[in-house]
Amino acid sequence: MRSFLIGLQFLTRITLERQTVWTEEDFGRSVRWFPPVGAVLGSIYALMMFAMIDLTAGRFPTLEAALALLMSTALTGAIHCDGFMDTFDGLFSGRDRARMLEIMKDSRVGAFGVVSFVMLSMMEFATLIELARLSTEEFLSALYAMPLVGRLMMVLAIGLFPYARASGMGKAFADRTDGRTMIFSTVEAMLLMAPVMIVSAEIFLTAMMAALAALALTVYFGWHATKKLGGLTGDVYGAVALLSELVVLIVFLIVRG
Predict the structure, then answer these.
(1) Cα–Cα distance measured from residue 167 to residue 188, given in angstroms and rounded to the nearest whole number
(2) What phi and psi, each to the nearest 5 degrees, are found at residue 121?
(3) Mean pLDDT value across residues 167-175
(4) What is the rounded radius of gyration, in angstroms, for the C-alpha atoms of the chain?
(5) Bridge partners of 163?
(6) In sequence order, which ranges of the chain are alpha helices (DSSP H)?
(7) How do residues 20-43 score in pLDDT, each as one tens digit?
(8) What is the mean pLDDT of residues 92-112?
(9) What is the mean pLDDT of the chain?
(10) Burial of 106 from C-beta contacts in 10 A (0-12 / 13-18 / 19+)
């Protein structure tokens, strides 16, 4: 339970039990509980959106999309947004490996990061608007699956690729994520997808397709980043989460739209 609460407090703004002293071992053990953290986020997204749809009778899909985007940013404290921008600042800089890693560590955000994040947000917003025009079940299922798959892909990225730095917070994750952790998290994520199966077997199948598409993107993006950086970093893990979430939404729209 402690490991789950550490993962929840680290990846979100939700604090059920205030913890201020974390060891590398604590961080490492929390990785296998990333999918449940995603399920918590997805449940909140779906419940809040259900309340809004019930209140407005689904008349404002653009507003629903804006609220969904706002929720995902507010509840995570924009931690993955920061990682995404740092990652693209480094990868698009055209510098050597050492300089790319320096750029990614810089607290300032560069033009490549800002432009990339704006494009990502535009794509996510547009996709959410179209999803909001589908049935309530399809829209809420997509919102639930999105963070769950995104956090699973973080686990797989951590386990499949080496860590790029000699030290760092992400190294605590990488050093303690092995094949057993990845298998455990994958099974865990599939079980946590049960609410979607209860809603509809067809929508559940769509969620599985979305997860496979997100996996393909994770493997490709992880390979590309490793080729450039010599491995992944905590920032890249955040970028993987956001890119995977977008892929989930796009697949839901293509298949269910």
Answers:
(1) 29
(2) -65, -40
(3) 82
(4) 18
(5) 232
(6) 2-11, 24-30, 34-56, 61-76, 79-91, 97-105, 111-132, 136-160, 169-175, 179-192, 194-199, 201-229, 234-256
(7) 666 677 777 899 999 999 999 999
(8) 90
(9) 93
(10) exposed
